[in-house]
Amino acid sequence: MYKLLIRPILFNFDPEKVHHFTFRMIKFLSALPLFSSVTRSMYHVNDSKLEREVFGLKFKNPVGLAAGFDKDAKLFNELHDFGFGFVEIGTLTPKPQGGNPKKRLFRLKKDSAIINRMGFNNGGVEDAVKRLKKNKGVLIGGNIGKNKVTPNENATDDYIICFDALFDHVDYFVVNVSSPNTPNLRALQDKEPLTQLLNTLQEKNLKKPSPKPILLKIAPDLTNDQLFDIIDIVKTTKIAGVIATNTTISRKGLQSNLTLANEKGGLSGKPLTNRSTEVIRFLSEESNKAFPIIGVGGIHTVDDALEKLEAGASLVQLYTGFIYEGPKLIKRINKALLKNG
Question: Which residues bind substrate (predicted)?
């Protein structure tokens, strides 16, 4: 029903407006008697064989929602009803920020893709914490970043503020230095500043009675040499793992018209499928499976998810595939995992 009826209607309107409209509708419907229980009965696949224990956490199933969809932690309980094993909120920054000027979100229908240059638009970490206190048992990842106005030499301070604010309210952290939509942010992926940032967070983390897993989200545009650096950084800093990958700045092979395809921002969706899997396989093989990887990027089919798991991912996340394919994709992936044993 989603692809035949709902999606064609929604795709006639501005994607950012549709995003907010959809949030309001899900929130409204979830407040109705039985809606949430009916939704769970339709989309949840409850089987202990789907459970995964990764970096010390138990996931009900290995299919999660990637960061960027529920930036402000407004809908994580309701989105969990669609069958996700975990939900990653954010990217959150210390102070609220409006993000980049609109229009900043574009559908590339011919490519089953999206370009976004949102720019970490969010209401600030403290505002999100208020809603996270109402968590009804959803396993939550907290994706953290820096404010646009914060210079890179002070970026660590921003990450620490978010880490401290979220610590009691999320199950794992994701350090986002790979978004292409905040000026100079990707420079923090360089070996020296990234090692310093992660070491600082780990020092704070390990002083806690129960430290939380810290993961690093990386870009798909890194060279092999840079990926070797990532492997070395994970080993040096002893963080829990890597999320591969964020959106890409590449526009290779797109079928959409040039005006649309050349919009600035990060590209997600089907064009990212193969590169994301390549990065996962490289990290897994070259590190000798030394750390867990969450695979994200271009998962639109069951086979896309299975390929990422076979390449070395322990868990997968959806974003653009969820928008294009609907919630049945989550169920199909979980059913396939049970069938394949």
Answer: 71, 116-120, 176, 181, 246-247
Predicted local distance difference test score (pLDDT) of residue 149:
97
- What is the C-alpha separation between 226 and 311, in angstroms, rounded? 19
**Is residue 154, in this structure, part of any structural domain at all?**
yes
Dihedral sign for Cα atoms in the order 63, 69, 72, 77 = negative
**120 is an annotated ligand-binding site residue:** yes
Q: How many CA atoms lie within 13 A of 339 on its CB side?
A: 8
Identify whether 341 is part of a domain: no
Beta-carbon contacts of residue 81 (< 8 Å; ≥ 6 apart) = 30, 36, 39, 40, 43, 44
Q: State the pLDDT at residue 183.
A: 87
Structure tokens at 288: 């000798």
pLDDT of 341 reads: 74
- Catalytic residue at 287? no
Residue 215: inside a domain, yes or no?
yes
Q: What are phi and psi of 71, to 5 degrees?
A: -55, -45
Active-site residue, selected from the candidate residues 112, 178, 179, 256: 179
Structural domain contains residue 233: yes
Task: Give start and end residues of each alpha helix (H) in 48-106.
Answer: 76-80
In the chain, how many domains are there? 1
Q: Is the pTM of this model over 0.85?
A: yes
247 is in an annotated binding site: yes
Angle at 125 between CA 122 and CA 129, to 5 degrees: 115
**Is 217 annotated as a binding-site member?**
yes
Look up tokens 């600030």; give the residue.
124
Query: Beta partners for 53?
Result: 58
What residues make up the domain containing 77? 2-336
Give the residue from 157, 133, 128, 132 showing the smallest Cα distance to 145: 157
Any known ligand binding at 113? no
Please list the ranges in the chain whose pLDDT falls under 70. Answer: none
pLDDT at 1: 85
Structure-token pair, residue 97: 């920020």
- pLDDT for position 82: 98
In a 13 Å sphere around the CA of 54, the CA atoms on its Cβ side amount to 32
CATH number, domain of 186, equals: 3.20.20.70
